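Researcher: Quick one. two chains, 453 residues in total.
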Amino acid sequence: MRLKIILTLSVVCGLILAWNLHTMFMKVPDEANQGAIFRIFYFHFPAAITSFAGFYLGMFAGVGYLITKNLKLDSIAASINEVSLAFATIALVTGSIWGRVIWGIWWTWDARITSYFVCWLLYVGYLMMRRAIDDPTTRARLCAVLSIFAAIDIVIVWKSIEWWRTQHPGPVLEIRGGGGMAAGMEAPLWWNFLAMLLLFTVLILIRMRQESMRREIDSLRRYAHAF
Amino acid sequence: MNFLRQSLAIAGKDLRSELRSKETVNASLSFALVILLLFSFAFDPGSEQVHEIAGGLLWLVFAFAGTLILNRSFARELVNDCLDALISSPASGAQLFFGKCLANYVLLVVVESACLPVFVIFYNSHWPRQWLLLFLVMLLGTWGITVIGTLFSAMTVNLRLRELMLPTLIYPMLIPALMGAIRLSTLILAGEPIGADDQIWFRLLVAFDIIFTILTLALVEIVLVG
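Model:
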């Protein structure tokens, strides 16, 4: 049943992505000031927002594990954090490429970029920690605590680095108080957001499937050792 | 009151054993000196530029040397299963943790206080006029390093590559505290007054300390006992 859901979502996601790419490259004109490179925003923004939301979702799953002690919640937390980290990497890399073209530099120690990088490092630490612990319950417990720390710390990091001067472009969209995008340019953004969210969900489902298989193998191995 | 008594007993035990062996403090101090030496090759130690980055250098030394102390904090209890004995003792996880925090704090402040005059001599800085203020920044920043470092030391104590995991995990986490401490220390070491704009860094340090002290005390039972 779950495999069918994963397959259906993948197909829908693939179709939307293909349609989006067609719209982005064939229909939407180049931006007046930035030229063709502005299209990277269609991936950069959804990836950044999705990863950020994912990290908090992962923390809630971790807290859920600490309350219920249900290992399934731990595998959900692990899957979400892992996929979120991949999305965060996409956001960092696409941002860097955009920066090279528009600012002429690959990297700048601006507030938003720096705090995002710190966030990325914190979750790299999370994954390292998962790998370093063998016992499933200890791993789940300590990783849940780590994700709570990371989620709270990132807010403080964000605020404190913001007190330095910032170079990252301000809000673009109208809902965040920005100037807004032209209607024809904004629609593909939300479509791509949907596609990225679907991709995020599909990857998490696949990752959770792997985790549940691993748990099964682990228990079989323990069972075999018992004899 | 009982909480503090138990914690002080743990802290006393740790400090006594450190006073007898002196292994962590000696290692940490020597390491700090090595870093101070290495910095002198990274840039011209006599230049004016040093004043602009003095706070950063100082706190990097503190953070690096501090990790050595924090790493040993729980690791020294692994021998003869002392950690299991401590956890099963009547002291709660929070008391055990707080006691360890106090001991680490004292050790860190001792190492830092020893490093500061060496730094001033090596890099031709002037002894800051507002040295009391610098000491206050040191106390606040070090408490942030200590609470997070001690909790993560407990978390990583049984891990493979413990020595590598601890710094990798705590340095990104400590960025707000280090930023505040670096900014304030740089101003104080340069002899500049702390303006209204920079007061915010004091508030940040205090807020960071309070938030993470509460959070660590709330979560330490889960980390130590489960």
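The radius of gyration of chain B is 18 Å.
Researcher: Thanks, that's what I needed.
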